[in-house]
Amino acid sequence: MPIPTSSFAHIRLTVTDIDRSRSFYEDVFGLPIAIELPENADGATQEQLGFLYGGVIYKLGNSLLGLRPVGADRFAEDRTGLDHVSFAVDSLSDLDAAALVLDERGIAHSGVKDIGAGHILEFRDPDNIALELFAPNPRARMTVRAN
């Protein structure tokens, strides 16, 4: 019997510069912080939150998005692991507004693209991690097939 799941609990991205990445994700997405190590944390708290590895976890709807600092390796979606992260937005107008936000911040992006099942807006974070915003097309029918 397969393991029953309903959604992702969290995704953690590894980044090369936690301060730079925090600035980017907080500025672009404005996500509230769910878990971080306080600057003046005592030893017990540091041990308890050791799973953060010097990073931060944000609240994203009903799930979490974490950032964890690692070495100087660069992201490449053509390697085994992660292709991209797609964030849901409600509508095409939300994507248009997001494109303006990215423009205001000088962040290069693909422009809004129609992919049939919806529309996407692609861009990259400071570590070159491929990010996408997705707005469903309410008139499109997506078929999900279980194995």
Search tags:
147 residues, alpha/beta, 2,3-Dihydroxybiphenyl 1,2-Dioxygenase, domain 1, four-stranded mixed sheet, 31% strand
Number of domains: 2
Shape: globular
CATH topology-level name of the largest domain = 2,3-Dihydroxybiphenyl 1,2-Dioxygenase, domain 1
- What is the tally of beta strands? 8
Looking at CATH, the homologous superfamily of the largest domain is 2,3-Dihydroxybiphenyl 1,2-Dioxygenase, domain 1
Which structural class do the helices and strands define?
Answer: alpha/beta
**Total number of helices:** 3
CATH architectural group of the largest domain? Roll
Spatial ordering of strands, largest sheet: 1-4-3-2
Residues in helices, as a percent range: 10-25%
Q: What share of the residues does DSSP label as strand, in percent?
A: 25-35%
* Mean pLDDT figure: 91
Q: What can be said about the biggest beta sheet?
A: 4 strands, mixed
What is the N-to-C succession of helices and strands? EHEHEEEHEEE
* First and last CA, distance: 12 Å
Give the class-level CATH name of the largest domain: Alpha Beta
Low-confidence stretches: none
Structure, described:
- With 147 residues, this protein is an alpha/beta fold.
- The chain has 2 domains: 64 residues, 2,3-Dihydroxybiphenyl 1,2-Dioxygenase, domain 1; 65 residues, 2,3-Dihydroxybiphenyl 1,2-Dioxygenase, domain 1.
- 21% of the residues lie in helices and 31% in strands.
- A hairpin with a 2-residue loop joins strand 3 and strand 4.
- The chain is globular.
- The two termini are 12 Å apart.
